[in-house]
Amino acid sequence: MELIAFTITPNNRKVVAFIKHFNLPVDVRQVDFKRQEHKGPEFTALNPMQKVPVLVDGDFVLWESNAILTYLARKFPETKALPTDIQGRADVDRWLHWQSAHLMPMMGGVKTGDKTEEDLAPLLRVLNGQLEGRDYITGSLTVADFAVAAYTLTSNADKFDYTDFPNLAAWRKRMSSLPAFEETAYKLPPAAA
């Protein structure tokens, strides 16, 4: 099984961190963006959207990061990262959809300057409330935590003031201290002397 990725982006980082956290038998290969490998015919045959990540499991090819997360959690049930009961699964799905429909576009808007931290505050408030009395979003560590954490652990998100969101701040600290998130953090190259 192979994951084709570009780890420095949140959608890629969440899948790579998940693979590393659970030590899954998935080879991770970084796409060469400088050479526009993701635009070539070989890659386009795997993903007509020409985006990463892409998971290749034998003849099965899957793109879309949250779909990859849930696939890996089902393929490797020993992770216990995806509930098997219908309500638990729906709860995790809710947070995966929340991440892709609300958090990701808002964080993109903040990054481009179209949105402000004030615009983001209502989403942070929702997540902070969900984390009240919980170590993880739905109680135990699931794919939802990896999906959401990848967006709340960016260098841009590190600049926000979390004083009014103590549950979220504590969760961010827990997630960022996982070795898999430490290992996948983007590090700027050293400045030239």
Write up what this structure looks like.
The structure is a single chain. By secondary structure, this protein is α+β, with helices and mostly antiparallel strands. The protein has two domains: 2-79, Glutaredoxin, CATH 3.40.30; 86-182, Up-down Bundle (Glutathione S-transferase Yfyf (Class Pi), Chain A, domain 2). The protein has eight helices and four strands, in the order βαβαββαααααα. It is globular and about 50 Å long.
What is this entry, summarized?
This protein is of the alpha+beta class. It is built from 8 helices and 4 strands, in the order βαβαββαααααα. The protein has 2 domains: 2-79, Glutaredoxin; 86-182, Glutathione S-transferase Yfyf (Class Pi), Chain A, domain 2 (Up-down Bundle), CATH 1.20.1050.10.
